[in-house]
């Protein structure tokens, strides 16, 4: 399916599937780069969360 792009209320939108219009930014990085950025950020956040959980568990064990 060829993704149609329309100008709606002063902004660009792309039809992702039938009747589903998503905002479109032609200057955005390609999907593969965006997906890689999301994966990297998710891994960073998971590492931070693991550190927080470990520190919280240590604090709780010290109180007992």
Low-confidence stretches: none
SSE succession: EEEH
Helix content: 40-55%
Structural class: alpha+beta
Report the mean per-residue pLDDT as an integer.
Answer: 85
Strand order of the largest sheet: 1-2-3
Could you tell me the radius of gyration in angstroms? 21 Å
Instruction: Label the overall shape.
Output: elongated
Question: Number of helical segments?
Answer: 1
Q: What's the main sheet like? A: 3 strands, antiparallel
Our estimate of the beta-strand percent is: 15-25%
- Distance from first to last alpha carbon: 61 Å
The overall strand count is 3
Structure description:
There is one protein chain. It contains 1 helix and 3 strands; from the N terminus they run βββα. A hairpin with a 2-residue loop joins strand 1 (5-8) and strand 2. The chain has a 3-stranded antiparallel β-sheet with strand order 1-2-3, with no helix packed on it. The mean pLDDT is 85. It is α+β, with helices and mostly antiparallel strands and 64 residues long.
Features:
alpha+beta, 64 residues, three-stranded antiparallel sheet, 23% strand
Topology:
Layout: E1 5-8, E2 11-17, E3 20-23, H1 31-63
Antiparallel strand pairs: 1-2, 2-3
């Amino acid at each position: 399916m060829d993704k149609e792009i329309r100008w709606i209320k002063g902004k660009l939108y792309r039809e992702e599937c039938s009747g589903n219009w998503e905002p479109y930014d032609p200057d955005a990085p390609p999907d593969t780069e965006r997906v890689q950025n999301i994966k990297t950020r998710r891994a960073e956040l998971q590492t931070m969360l693991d550190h927080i959980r470990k520190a919280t568990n240590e604090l709780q064990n010290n109180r007992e």
